[in-house]
Specification:
The chain has a two-stranded antiparallel sheet with strand order 1-2. The model has no long low-confidence stretch (mean pLDDT 78). By secondary structure, the protein is mainly alpha-helical. Helices cover 56% and strands 6% of the residues. A hairpin with a 2-residue loop joins strand 1 and strand 2. Belongs to the cytochrome P450 family. Its cofactor is heme. GO terms for molecular function: heme binding; iron ion binding; monooxygenase activity; oxidoreductase activity, acting on paired donors, with incorporation or reduction of molecular oxygen. One of its GO terms (cellular component) is endoplasmic reticulum membrane.
Amino acid sequence: MVLFFVVAVLFGAILALIGHYFRRKKYSQHLNGFQPGFFKYLGDFIKLLMHAASNDGHSICYHFTQHLKELNEQHQQRQMYYIWGFLNPYIVFVKAEAVKQLLSKRKGTNEKSWLYDFLKPLMGTGLLTSSVDKWKPRRKQLTPCFHADILRGFLTVFNEHSQKLVENLRQETKKEFTYIGTPVTLSALDIIC
């Protein structure tokens, strides 16, 4: 009985991988970028890991930005390309025209990506994480508040409180551990109030 269960689970997993491979192949035919093979489930991240394995003292973030820089140089003549991250394609826009074209078509852009679901417990459904139907009317109300002429009048306030934040962070770096949320939150409150 246990053997049957194990075989059934393995068979199901293999079928799921094959199905996902054909879905990836179907999507990748319509996009410019790295065409992943059947067993290359790390996609473009394998190249990133190879960069990071060079042990040159740089962080993984540095290697990630270098990898994206190389890809942007390769695809600079195109409007966009995509990279595969594990099981998902991520579209990278190179030209502003591609972003404009995407944003002008409202169909299919009403919901945020599943990546935003990680932010919802932290941020709720505000301007960043809510759907277009919810944030568009609110954005129209907020846009005049962030006009350059209005913000220019608050530059001295921003500057004064950012200097205080720098001093607070300088004091915090002397400690072994710092929760950065507290000084940043206090600085934001000082600027707002």
